[in-house]
Amino acid sequence: MLYFATGNINKVKEAEIILKDIKIQQINIKYPEIQGSLEEVAEFGAKYVYNIIKKPVIVEDSGFFVEALNGFPGPYSRYVQETIGNEGILKLLEDKDNRNAYFKCVIGYCDENGVKLFSGIIRGKVSEEIRGEHGFAYDSIFIPEGESRTFAEMSREEKSRISHRKLAFDKLREFLKRGKYEI
Asked: Is it the case that residue 9 has pLDDT exceeding 90?
């Protein structure tokens, strides 16, 4: 059993699709989200939760980075989403030609041997408008490279085949298999 400390059921559902061969149990343990890089947040959170439950646990932190905005919102993506939302990001990009952006995911895994970090990045661009019904956060304004649709216009399964989380979770799966983790 691998515990996933998050209150976000969308992240759990995506992880279950990606890690279909690993049993995941969501636990809703709040941990202080320190100000820092995605790596610092994931490492701190994984250690914090592991010290409470003493069982293998993962935490995940993601960020949305827009080139024309010097990487904003980056590690502050959740706060920015809650305050200005996708409409605010589109407004900030109104006069910008460069719409390049990327999602980055960092998974912190902690067990009795300490913390390991696994990351994934998917590049793309910010759409001109909000599009799509599926997904959450910035999914309705992000078009991955090689696609004409936003993440929110894709099914959960389609997104889960190419997402930043997929890339990070694939690395985690390989690590767990090498360590003969019970899957």
From this structure: no
